[in-house]
Write a structure and sequence with these properties.
Shape of chain A: globular
Distance between the termini of chain B: 36 Å
Radius of gyration of chain B: 13 Å
Number of helices of chain A: 0
Order of helices and strands of chain A: EEEEEEEEEEE
Distance between the termini of chain A: 37 Å
Structural class of chain A: mainly beta
Helix content of chain A: under 10%
Order of helices and strands of chain B: EEEEEEEEEEE
Oligomer: heterodimer
Shape of chain B: globular
Helix content of chain B: under 10%
Number of strands of chain A: 11
Largest sheet of chain B: 6 strands, mixed
Radius of gyration of chain A: 13 Å
Structural class of chain B: mainly beta
Chain lengths: 114, 107
């Protein structure tokens, strides 16, 4: 079974704090994705990475950065959390770059910024 | 207009009913996904299809590439089918998601 884990299921932070969300996979997949999910808007892509130290902006990268130092680990960083970043954050993985692949999702982190 | 539209947004059914959820898209795609999300957040991939029809247990997914339309059918629905069903399309590594259909099946 594919396993994608996220560092926390629930997280509460204060405005201005630096927040790290971590995603770890055990499948040796190349592609890793960070999404946020908001009611009525569906999943929106924040950033994705197709290799170690590589990253590409998704549809809503503002206010976020990412890090991929090892193939199995993809971190999402909120440099200075704001209340409009309260959301469900989902990590996903898929196989090889530029080939069409099923995506496997982590359990999600529900982040609340007060 | 969203590139992926699902209908209905909300659906309630009695146990045993046949259910259909629809997905229309406006972009060229390599494949379409149907995903299931239970309360609590985790998303599971149900189907990935690029043509025709796929069946898994009581779930059937169809796609018409010419009409840019897909349907997800659930036969003999059960309360455990209650979830949000999400349609997603893609032609590269990235997916475009619909906003989901919330299904509640009552005993």
């Amino acid at each position: 079974d594919v396993k994608v884990t996220q560092s926390s299921r629930y997280l509460v932070k204060r405005t201005g704090e630096k927040v790290f969300l971590e995603c770890v996979q055990d499948m040796d997949h190349e592609n890793m994705f960070w999404y946020r999910q908001d009611p009525g808007l569906g999943l929106r892509l924040i950033y994705f990475s197709y290799d170690v130290k590589m990253k590409e902006k998704g549809d809503i990268p503002e206010g976020y950065s990412v890090s991929r130092e090892k193939k199995e680990r993809f971190s999402l960083i909120l440099e200075s959390a704001s209340t409009n970043q309260t959301s469900m954050y989902l990590c996903a993985i898929s196989g090889r770059r530029n080939s069409y692949n099923e995506q496997f999702f982590g359990p999600g982190t529900r982040l609340t910024v007060l | 207009k969203n590139e992926v539209e699902q209908s209905p947004q909300n659906l309630t059914a009695q146990e045993g009913e046949f259910i259909t959820i629809n997905c229309s898209y406006s972009v060229g795609i390599s494949a379409l996904h149907w995903l299931q999300q239970h309360p609590g957040g985790g998303i599971v991939s149900l189907f990935m299809l690029s043509s025709g029809k796929k069946k898994h247990g009581r779930l059937i997914a169809t796609i018409n590439i010419q009409e840019k339309h897909s349907s997800l059918h659930i036969t003999a629905s059960h309360p455990r089918d209650s979830a949000v069903y999400i349609c997603a399309v893609g032609n590269t590594d990235k997916l475009i998601f619909g906003t989901g259909t919330r299904l509640q099946v009552f005993p």
